[in-house]
Amino acid sequence: MKSVCASVVFLIVLSACHRQPAAPPEYLAALSAHRATVDSTMRSDPSSPFLRDSSIQFTGIKWFPPDYAFRAEARLHRYPDPSEIVTRGTKGEERHVIRYGILTFTLQQREFRLNVYKFTEAELKQRGEGLRSYLMVWFTDLTTGKETYPVGRYVEIDLESPDSTHIYVIDFNKAYNPYCAYTSHYSCAVPTRDDVLDLAINAGEKKYHDDH
């Protein structure tokens, strides 16, 4: 309990010293808990890439300090006729996804947009109908290949809402690396040239290996 409280206080101090706007204490507490869960999963969950590849050692996920300025509210603009496109995996294989729409949001007083993808019907048959409302967002930014994984990062948003006016939260403090960032045993979707943010997203997960 003392270690969790200490982590929350540490995050509050970092947020206060780093930049505005200051994050609410309850947000920092939730973010601290989220990151602790990620570490626990990577360390001991059977699905962890570190347990599936004995050649790599888990030493803890590396994060940027929390920055509330990288949490944005976004609107989803669905395409009238979403199309299936072909992307690539890190091993060069073709991957089929539905380009479903775009998210529009503001960061540092600038307007941005990112593509939103969904699984194809073929993928849903394999993965399960429960993922029909799952929205995929991945990106590269000005930290990519420097402080962060060279392929890019992913970020979770809310499940698709039937309400067209729903406000989605895109929190780059929770941006994460796909499993291929840790071991070559995995292949992951590569963000396209349309998934680029012309901004340094100094938030979320940093690259794990210093040599790539």
Helix-strand layout with pairing:
Elements: H1 2-18, H2 25-44, H3 49-52, E1 71-88, E2 94-107, E3 110-118, H4 121-127, E4 138-139, E5 153-154, E6 167-171
Structure description:
By secondary structure, this protein is of the alpha+beta class. It has a domain at 54-181. It is built from 4 helices and 6 strands. The chain has helices spanning 2-18, 25-44, 49-52, 121-127, and strands at 71-88, 94-107, 110-118, 138-139, 153-154, 167-171. A 4-stranded antiparallel sheet has the order 3-2-1-6, with no helix packed on it. Strands 4-5 form a two-stranded antiparallel ribbon. A hairpin with a 2-residue loop joins β2 (94-107) and β3. α1 (2-18) packs across α2 (25-44). The chain starts with a helix and ends in a 41-residue tail after the last strand.
Number of strands: 6
What helical percentage do the residues reach? 10-25%
Low-confidence stretches: 1-18
State the strand order across the main sheet: 3-2-1-6
In N-to-C order, the SSE pattern is HHHEEEHEEE
Which structural class do the helices and strands define? alpha+beta
- Average pLDDT confidence is 91
Q: What is the approximate shape?
A: globular
Sheet with most strands = 4 strands, antiparallel
Radius of gyration over alpha carbons?
Answer: 18 Å
Distance between the termini: 36 Å
Entry summary:
The chain is of the alpha+beta class and 212 residues long. Helix content is 23%, strand content 24%. A four-stranded antiparallel sheet has the order 3-2-1-6, with no helix packed on it. A two-stranded antiparallel sheet has the order 4-5.
